Each structure stands twice: as structure tokens, then as C-alpha cells.
Amino acid sequence: MYIYKTEILPVSTKFFSDKANEKDAEALDELLNRRAKEGWELAAYDYMATSSQIKGAFIITFKKEKMQ
Fold this sequence. Notes:
Elements lengths: L1 E9 L11 H16 L3 E9 L6 E10 L3
Antiparallel strand pairs: 1-3, 2-3
């Protein structure tokens, strides 16, 4: 059985595009590596833009074995 942890990682403000940029990807890598060191494994992720397409976020779900 697994336990799950979902986090929201806001991205930098966008004015002309709702796409993530290199700085956003680096922040995502940092979070993934930090959680991996804690024993979490990436289960799912998505990028969600706001309706105004100015500010978005990564939604990341991690999992790890539940200790019995």
C-alpha cells in the first residue's frame, strides 16, 4: 500500500504565454530531487494555467510505501 502527497508549485508570472520556462523547470527539478531524497516517488503531475494565463502552477503527486 502507498501513501500519497500532493503539492502545488507556483510558476513565475507570465505576460505573453502560459508556458513554463527554464526557471520553472529548474524549480520543479529541485522539488523532485528534494522529495526523492525523502523517499517519495513521482506518481503524477500536471501544469495548470489560470484563466487569465498570467500565473500557473505545477500540481505534483508523490507516493511512497506505507510503513507497516
